[in-house]
Amino acid sequence: MRGPVIIREAQCTHREPSPRPCPSAQPAPPTSPRAAGNHQWDDHYPNEEVFARDIALGELWVLEPAAGVLAGVAAITTEQEPEYAQADWDAAAPAIVVHRLAVDPSHRGAGVAAALMHHAETIAHQLGIAHVRVDTNTENPATQRLFPKLGYRPAGEITLEFRPGLRFLCYEKRLGPHPNPCT
Hints:
The protein is 19% helix and 25% strand. By secondary structure, it is α+β, with helices and mostly antiparallel strands.
């Protein structure tokens, strides 16, 4: 990202309307993920309930490259799906997990997703958690290229009960000690 950006917890305000805090993350065809063959998000998931829960738990983060401009969102949590036991990692180990990572089409290629992933890593360091995990639809080539560039290792393919018919690739990054910015 060029220039200063703000990453902050999402709030229920007129600037972040329900059901989608970043409504154009699901734009009308032809630029929608579904139009590109990625069916990870649809009319049923994520829905208003999912985002309301993320906001209520303080787990939904938004990136603003300028005041009032929402460029991306991500749910950053310690909640791991039960199906994560299918992946090639220690599912019992505490982890920060990134869900619902989305970038507004007008901001794609600007480093928004990478900045949100780095924010998840910062939260992990603050909480003393050594693992950051994320999954993505097998039909999402953009994130499949991004995660390894950011140092995430492939950790296998899983299914999710609440998303029947879809397969998801898992990625994990083991964090080293948090660098001390004062030294």
